[in-house]
Amino acid sequence: MHKIDNTYLTLDKLHRIIYEEVSIELSEDAISKIQSCRSFLDDKTNQNNPIYGINTGFGSLCNESISSDKLEDLQINLVVSHACGFGDEVPASIVKLMLFLKVQSLSYGFSGVQLETVNRLIDFYNNDIFPVIYQQGSLGASGDLAPLAHLSLPLLGLGEVYYKGNKIKSEQMLKDMGWEPIRLKSKEGLALLNGTQFMSAYALHSLFNSYKLSYIADLTGAISLDAYDGRIEPFNELVHLIRPHKGQLKTAKNISEFLDGSELISSEKVNVQDPYSLRCIPQVHGATKDALEYAKNTIITEINSVTDNPNVFANEGKVISAGNFHGQPLALVMDHLAIALSELGSISERRIYLLISGQRGLPAYLTPNAGLNSGFMIPQYTAASIASQNKQLCTPASVDSIVSSNGQEDHVSMGANAATKLFKVAENTERILSIELMTASQALSFRGKSSSDFIESFVGSFRNDVPVITNDVVLHDKMKLSLQFIQDLSFEESLLY
Fold this sequence. Notes:
This protein has helices spanning 11-19, 28-45, 71-82, 92-106, 115-126, 145-152, 170-177, 188-193, 197-227, 237-241, 246-258, 276-279, 281-303, 328-356, 377-393, 415-444, 453-463, 475-488, 493-496; strands at residues 2-4, 24-26, 86-89, 130-131, 134-136, 160-163, 166-169, 311-313, 318-320. The chain is mainly α. The strands form four sheets. It has a three-stranded antiparallel sheet with strand order 4-6-7.
């Protein structure tokens, strides 16, 4: 059980909460802060002073006053009118993260929500009740309005949820659970819809995945290096100490450790130098690792923040309307991370090309009977296609903006588009690396000498799923197995970050 409080959430702690499927509940301190903030806001509202989104309209309607008997209607109308998502559904893993992050943000006591509302979100999280949310609809400013509206609909008994593997009406879910719909009070709809939890959930999910992909890229690169009969000298620590980028040093260390004891890597070489896609692995993979560190700092700061509007400062007696919902920090960092991941895929595809090109004693297309068999010719096509798609997806979303709400919201981050693009780039990079693993393992089988014990053991495990291919088969099936092998891999956190 994890108690939600104001303790700073580190990457390690988030990993434990999310991947060990820990249940959550509010700490006594969080309960006290939520209740105190709500009481203050109730008193403030009774004074009949205009407060944005509490007793006024929203966006460009901010100067429209709302009578006290319509404040609950105002919040309900906000949620239902903003549930305008479109496109593909958000994966359940991301929705669960959104629930957690929304609870975390509301628990700090600056949002003015009821305790009942936060506890119902916790109930959704703990019971794997996932609101149906759509990927399109957020501009990444004013909060992730449309996605968070869909997240909030089930609180009211509206919309749809996934429960026990089935998509059902939220009304039915409430009946099955014995729950009544939440009656939103003033400001609650705004607190639920304002925030960066859609962007943050995608960012955090992609961050965890990116650390894993970075490590796997080092591993597949090491196998490719040995399979290609490459040289170990470019990974010597002396080289990297005179250009001491942290990621570069770590990558060189990883490759050296992976290949320690390899008969192949220590054998006499004919070629004086290797192509850049092998020789410059530390510099390229290392730059991605450095990008990951930058991304981590921004994403973790965001997750430990309050991102709705207005902010309620009960101790100071203030309600301040500002702009913490603006997703620019996340938009920039997700664009950066997408580019960094794309480069892992790009250099991986180049190594695939080297291995099938019939050089350094390897047969053309890694088949004993080239001509009769096409061997690994077309997996490289697939990798090239995916790598190019990644490049197209890496056009930054954060440089775009569009005016909305009748000019009131005149600069937006487009962080939600950056988020979904990043998710796709990560998926694509994983697929390219799975093709490299399959290709490099095939190439290694043609060498008469052994690699390191570590590599031989790893490839041996891979061979249980994907054997050496001697004659043409439906390679799609083998590629799916290779991808599944990578997806099933797990590593100690200390190896990844």
